[in-house]
Specification:
The protein has helices spanning 65-76, 81-91, 98-131, 183-192, 197-206, 221-231, 244-250; strands at 19-27, 30-37, 43-48, 52-54, 60-64, 140-150, 159-166, 172-179, 238-241. It is of the alpha+beta class and 252 residues long. The strands form three sheets. The chain has a four-stranded mixed beta sheet with strand order 8-7-6-9. The chain has a three-stranded antiparallel beta sheet with strand order 1-2-3, with no helix packed on it. Strands 4-5 form a two-stranded antiparallel sheet. The chain starts with 18 loop residues before the first strand and ends with a helix.
């Protein structure tokens, strides 16, 4: 189909109208395409179907924009590599490897964590300004409320989130994600065997980065998140008042 776009162009070398489009290497969902003469094999031009991502200094990364966007989209749907595999199968598209997909997941996690940290810090600075709190004060009292939510309905969700909300501005000033699930642990249990010595050795190196930070019922995630948030409130210089209504809500 693409070759027809160049069918009437003349080659500068052999003076024939015989350009064709050749697909080169595959990089996930991105392809390298070349326009060359079918007679003398003269390369006219080449490019990628997706642009490469750039670093903060302007240099190009090895990652392609389309691959990153697809990984982010499926993660945003709450789906993972298996769903992407099914999608590519039905659309007859080349699939990136699971290792590459996980690399994109790690990149997205690091980027979102960095951005959210910067945003939260700006929010806290703005709250200080709204309350008229000087930066020379080590601690400051502010009025807040607390609420929790879960990824799925009911009290069977594997993931929950607790948020501390400033009453004056309505900004979320801190949050805690509680998880009862770790994808890497599930893969390791399946491939190595949960009771095996190999799994024990693997878990010793993995436990510091394991996603699971809550053991217990899903309903108890809200209380666990509140405890963690109020335990560290003094570290950010904003001593929070626990509202009576929230004490009743959490039964503490």
């Amino acid at each position: 189909m693409l070759s027809s776009l160049f069918a009437n162009l003349m080659c500068k070398v052999c003076k024939t109208s015989s350009f064709r489009v050749v697909l080169g290497g595959r990089y996930g969902l991105s392809h390298k395409i070349k326009v060359e003469c079918d007679v003398c094999k003269q390369l006219e031009t080449e490019t990628y179907t997706s642009q490469r991502m750039t670093k903060s200094d302007g240099t190009l990364r090895k990652t392609f924009d389309i691959n990153m966007r697809v990984a982010q989209a499926f993660l945003g749907f709450g789906k993972g590599y298996l769903a992407l595999e099914i999608f590519c199968m039905y659309t007859n598209m080349h699939l990136m490897s699971g290792r590459i997909f996980n690399r994109y997941k790690k990149f997205l996690l690091d980027s979102i964590t960095y951005s959210s940290t910067k945003i939260i810090q700006k929010v806290r600075n703005k709250i200080r300004k709204e309350y008229g709190i000087s930066y020379t004060h080590e601690f400051a009292d502010i009025a807040v409320s607390f609420d929790g939510t879960w990824l799925t309905r009911g009290h069977t969700s594997q993931i929950g989130v607790g948020c501390v909300i400033d009453i004056l501005t309505g900004y979320v000033i801190d949050y805690e994600v509680m998880s009862k699930h770790c994808t890497k642990c599930e893969y390791a249990k399946t491939n190595l065997g949960e009771k095996s010595a190999e799994y024990s050795i693997w878990y010793d190196g993995h436990k510091t980065s394991c996603s699971i930070n809550h053991i217990g019922t899903s309903g108890a995630m809200e209380m666990a998140a509140a405890y963690k948030l109020w335990s560290r409130c003094e570290k950010m210089g904003l001593q929070q008042f626990f509202q009576t209504v929230m004490q009743k809500h959490l039964n503490i």
